[in-house]
Amino acid sequence: MANKRILISQPKPASNSPYFDIEKRYNVDIDFRKFFSIEPVPAREFRKLRIDLGSFTSVVFTSKIAVDHYFRVAEEMRFQVPTTMKYFCINETIAQYLSKYIVYRKRKISFADGSIDDFVCLIARTPEEKYILPVADNHRNTLINKLKRKKVKVTKAVFYQIAYSDLSDLKLDYDIVVLFSPSGMKALEENYDDLKANNIKIAAFGSETSKAVTKAGLKVSIKAPTTDCPSMTMAIEKYLKNGKTK
Q: What pTM did the predictor assign?
């Protein structure tokens, strides 16, 4: 098997992670390295945006991180999120994650199938809502632009920032590098001059991550989520199982 080493761009998980099962089953070495960190925008800085959280009737979530920071800022600003607030999530996993902060009621929580296009269609069904989209400072405007074309008004607000890790001590001699967001791809570009020369295979989670990889001039060899492989571990295992590691 040609692929001996895999780099996961996340912190090392708990001992019961499926990644460790893959290591044993396919005789590969898997390393973990955090490519970037999340830094909160404190309430005092958020106030400078002059955004009134109480003026919105719906919140649009594209990640669990966005969920955490929306409710963090709300708490820091002593804003009591009303029980009438509606939530639109890009997938069911994020929708279920909301139960960490609110009583889960399906009539107030809607979710798409994970794709941007389905998410846009979901939100566009109720254009009269006043939407706020919590994002990072490096957020791409793909979703915003698609919603604008549907005549849906959404206010984008930066609730957290991305700080790229210093990877100068990490030699990029891996066969597969696994990315979970466009920020992961950006971290690679920030740290390495000629990624094409490394001849590595990229595994990308999510359509936006795949787009970022392609934009950087690289090829996505492993994609998730898909119908057959809803998780990245399943996608990697399928790739290895099929012997596509030449």
A: 0.78
